[in-house]
Amino acid sequence: MTTPQEELLPGTSRALLHRIAVAQAEGRAPSLVAAVVRDGRAVWHGARTSVEGHGPDENVQYRIGSITKTFTAVLVLRLRDEGALDLGDPLEKHLPGTGAGEATIADLLAHTSGLAAESPAPWWERTPGSLRPELADVLGEQPGLHPVGRRFHYSNAGYTVLGVLVEKLRGEPWEEVLRREVLEPLGLDRTSAHPQAPHAGGWAVHPWADVLLPEPTEDLGRMAPAGQLWSTTADLARFAVFLARGDDRVLSAETMREMRTPAAPAEAVDVLDGAAYGLGLQIQRWDGRLLVGHSGSLPGFLANLTISVEDDVAAVVLANCTSGPLLSGVGADLVRIVAEAEPRVPDPWRPLSEVDASAVELAGQWYWGTYAFALRLSAEEGVSLEPLSGSGRRSRFRTNGDGTWTGLEGYYAGELLKAVRRPDGTVSHLDLGSFVFTRQPYDQEAPVPGGVDSEGWRGIG
Predict the structure, then answer these.
(1) Crossing angle of the two packed helices 10-27 and 327-341, in degrees rounded to 10
(2) Which residues contact 418 (CB under 8 A, 6 or more apart)?
(3) Cα(188)–Cα(393) distance, integer angstroms
(4) Predicted structure pTM score
């Protein structure tokens, strides 16, 4: 059940309702439903509809299109975490003879496989899946359009391949594996491959007249892992919590962070737009806020799931029209409204439960040449090194248990941080991937590469 709306301030709830009302009216959607998640649970649900006296609630199914890809990616990451495959494995290792075997599993997840965006004609979204019974029917005679790994090229066919991979390694249909390994553990009992009442009907709205045309509802067959699923705002709200926090019954928080990390090279236009793609998740910078999630569409339906992990706020927006409201913008606005009107209350500060004496000794100010850095030790981030100017290379570090640490992000990801000591045991300097960090800028007592002028610092006069 959705948490009572009173948990949000009345002004916030009205602003959310106003935003979806504008979206439904201006986008000319037969119906539009939305939910907002905060602190790990749904706190608001809203709906607008063209049918007087009837408002779909959080349990009405809509088709969610390509949000299905995120579910498929979760299944693949489960196989990786179990050791059944490696993301660097070429497809040929597990599915020989596809014609796309050079692409790795990671390439398929990140849409860098070079595969075509769609299957051969006729258009798969409006025709029966029975027209494409085999994977070869989906890939066609020449599956690749681009060199593998060189560019992001969104591929529905690529996620069909991943679905077939899941079936091959599990020995069961994709739909059954998804139900058992993801939907049931997360309590998503209103998410399914086929519509279950109550569900919305899909409509096309004439671009120049306020009239409707029903859209066909096709079983996508082999293409199901790319866009088959139906779901509700209540179920997708729960799924959003999982994507932000992880759930050890399905995937760990660490693996979810990996999914949310950019994995595809960005086109120039994507750099300008602040857009990237992870492993089954879209990543977007929107009004200074980092958002992750996925959008979806199939004839008759639009869907969007948007998460701000930092704000601990997520939004789900579903509509039953082929085109109309820009749901990614609506989702981003719903997140912004809550995050700005009711900012996240930080957890209380608490001291570390265990003290790493070697790290405490290193805490404080360090210099790389003349650049000032601070090494901090916190309960929230562990060991981190960051420039005091606020901009530049920073990273968190994972302890290796032997007095060294490994970088977790940015320029220093995977690089080794260690303290180099003098014969008497005192710290001479920090070594980070061959960079020397000293307590004073260009410290004459430390082995600064290139040496330090013996006359020291001076003025010009």
Answers:
(1) 170
(2) 403, 404, 405, 430, 431, 432
(3) 41
(4) 0.91
